[in-house]
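Researcher: Quick test of sequence recovery. Tokens follow.
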């Protein structure tokens, strides 16, 4: 895998790279956590399938942060409140989709571990 656990967190703090690298890291984790019954655990590929949740999570995360930042810079309180509410709504959607994404990764890893004989099945969160 290309991304280490430390860099999966660290990329959020690197300017400009934080706009792309966290998405790529989570995408890599999703693909590596394959639930394909034909996989031997080593056959995942960077060209594997993804999920729409990745795009929803990352798109709403970016847009929510941009809009919230704009809201903080607007001088008119009546305008900034509405913009801030929109940004917060997008960040709520990002949080919910992130939770669903993490549950999906957990379920895929539990399924693969059970299939590959990695011990007792792990209940998804």
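Model:
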């Amino acid at each position: 895998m290309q991304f280490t656990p430390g860099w999966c967190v660290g990329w959020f703090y690197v300017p400009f790279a934080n706009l792309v690298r966290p998405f790529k890291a989570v995408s890599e984790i999703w693909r590596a956590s394959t639930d394909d019954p034909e996989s031997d655990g080593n056959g995942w590929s960077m060209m594997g399938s993804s999920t729409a949740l990745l795009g929803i999570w990352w798109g709403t995360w970016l847009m929510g942060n941009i809009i919230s930042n704009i809201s903080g810079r607007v001088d008119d309180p009546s305008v900034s409140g509405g913009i801030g509410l929109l940004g917060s709504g997008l960040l709520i959607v990002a949080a919910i989709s992130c939770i669903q994404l993490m549950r999906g990764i957990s379920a895929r890893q539990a399924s693969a571990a059970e299939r590959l004989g990695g011990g007792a099945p792990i209940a998804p969160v």
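The chain has a mean pLDDT of 84.
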